[in-house]
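Note on ligand handling. Small-molecule inputs were canonicalized before submission; formal charges were left as drawn, and no protonation-state enumeration was performed. Where a ligand contained multiple stereocentres, the stereochemistry in the source SMILES was retained. For NAP, this procedure yielded the string shown in the input block below.
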Amino acid sequence: MEGKRVLLTGATAGIGEVAAIRLSAMGYDVVIVGRNEQRCKNTLQKMKATQGQGDLSYLVADLSSREEVLKLARAYKEKFDRLDILINNAGAVFFDDRRSVDGIEMTWALNHFGYFWLTNELLELIRKNAPARIINVSSDAHHRSRLSAERCIDKSNKVPYFTYGNSKLANLLFTTELARRLEGSGVTVNALHPGMVATNFGANNGIPGRVFNLVTGIFSITCEEGAKTILYLATSTDVESITGKYFYKERQSNPSTISLDEFLAKRLWRKSEEETIAIDRARSVSV
Ligand SMILES: NC(=O)c1ccc[n+]([C@@H]2O[C@H](COP(=O)([O-])OP(=O)(O)OC[C@H]3O[C@@H](n4cnc5c(N)ncnc54)[C@H](OP(=O)(O)O)[C@@H]3O)[C@@H](O)[C@H]2O)c1
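Structure output:
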């Protein structure tokens, strides 16, 4: 792992933080992304305490914002000349129907567009460093999805349970299409379900979120356990030539049939590009 650089989002809490600490201990050069500078510094301190030999740093960005993802990618490319492992992990559930700064339903802005934008902005650099890996943290919640060719991106959050599941299906459709596009490039892309993990997940929803965490916490595994499949996909030689797959408990697992639908995966990609172009146009008008 000497000289291998990892970029890991959502590393200031939960399974992302544990993965960041473990990767640091293994000696990887780790760049974490968080939306709050102080929380980034706290995690960085824990990473440094492992006394791994890698270069450790952080970048701050709200990944639900197109502008901030572009700035993040630019800052990364200015500072570093390689990216061996990109881990898209930052995600959340929203109990209310809110919009991102770009006007996208918030669950989708963070859980899907955050992954889509950051990966695409860094893809050239990742390809340059092949062999390289991209890891998308999804969820078994994708099994309850209701996406279709006519409506493949949710515009509002009527039922958070389904909106979250849909966004996590989007992570898998994104993985399917990206793996197809990267065929033969030496860059693999895989997705995973971490298990039901006792984290801060839901805490952004006030008291209902805290109640949700308390109840689900009873049935949940620890963050150490939850981070294992991320670490497996990032570091194991078992998976170095496996791409486009879904993992759970460090093993390949069966995702829903719809997540492998190549037509839907292409359609989601195209629709995501169209949304992005519209956002960029609006941004350039307002500048
Ligand atoms: N926990 C589970 O049972 C479970 C199950 C299946 C899948 N997952 C998936 O696992 C991933 C990690 O979740 P977790 O359970 O570890 O949750 P968590 O403890 O809430 O951690 C989420 C991380 O994402 C960051 N984040 C949230 N909103 C952000 C934004 N707008 N911009 C940048 N970063 C942001 C958080 O930063 P702050 O520290 O600033 O809040 C935190 O570092 C998610 O993709 C989730 O969907 C979790």
